[in-house]
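Write out this protein's structure.
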Amino acid sequence: MMQDIGNMGQTHLQPRVLFNETVLKDHKLTSTDIEKFVKLWQEFQMKNITPPVDECQGYCQGEIYNWLRAYNSIHGYVSLMICIFGTIANILNIMVLTRKEMAKTPINNILKWLAVADMFVMLEYIPYTSYQYIYMGPGEKDLSYTWAVCLLVHMHFTQILHTISIGLTVTLAVWRYVAIRHPNGGCANFLLAHSREAILLPFILSPILCLPTYFVFKVRETYDVDQVNSEAMYHVYFDKDSVLYRFNFWIHSVLIKLLPCGILIVISAVLMHVLCEASRRRLKLRDYNNPAKYAIQLNLTEPKSKKPPRCDRRNDRTTLLLVAVLVLFLITEFPQGLLGLLSGVMEKCFFAHCYPPFGELMDLLALINAAVGFVLYGLMSKQFRSTFRSLFMKRHFGSTEMTRLTRVTTTCV
């Protein structure tokens, strides 16, 4: 029976085959003609298909992005020089701030650990920028598994250390605010008794705050579909549509960046108000060498005048130094927090087209912030300069000068 069915199939198929061959012979069609027809048909379809509308079209275009791309081509060399200088400068900061006469004040201890965090950021960034921007040419990518893991470690390591620096800066600002506004209150005594715990707190909280980042970014293996025997390619991958990804953006931009910036803006304004008050007091006492004139100005019957206490002047210099540190921090962190917030609100388009060109510029600002501490301390703190000279220029100082320096015990930097 199966044989009969097979014979029937052959009888049904044979006329169809003969018909197709007859049609081809009658019209004189060849396989080459058929291939040309198929190719022309495909081209016709491609021309008449409407291209998909890009929902992100028109995002982030202008001259500023041309400038950013021009800077990105030299970012490797600029960042490498800043990292080398910053590493040396932070090592000098640590050496000066750990001296006995400097380590007596909690503020100097906070600045010391801030220098430690900044130093490790610089040390880690040196091999990264050397390989990513200098060793590899423009447009070249390393898709090996080793480099993908290095990128992942670089992201997590720098974010944790940067968050620690943010926490220490906020601690520094709060400490100075309490020391000025409530110097003899219970809060000041509590902070003084728990200064080590206050410094340790940012080191504990920072890895916890960065916890969502560990699950958002991961190494992914891909293959080139256009090649038959393509090698595996590895890159850092994140799912833009996941809830965890958006949640991480909000944590990073609002809680880690913008909230500390808001706190620092308020405290900086208060510290600046204190400095203005101190400046007005000094203006009232500017004629201390002319008691008669001073008594007339204040409507006093007896001339009284006194030079502003040295400790007050030192406290003003310390406050001014910390305000400079806070302002520099705000210039660095606020744009990063704002970009992160816009990426969370506008989601795909802003992050895909606007955020990447600013990446190298944000890194540059963070590196500058971490490197200029030594310059600020040297320019604005007399005690820091004196301790630095006593540490590295001992031959030029006599025993009398060294004795005088070791007696400096103030709350100043």
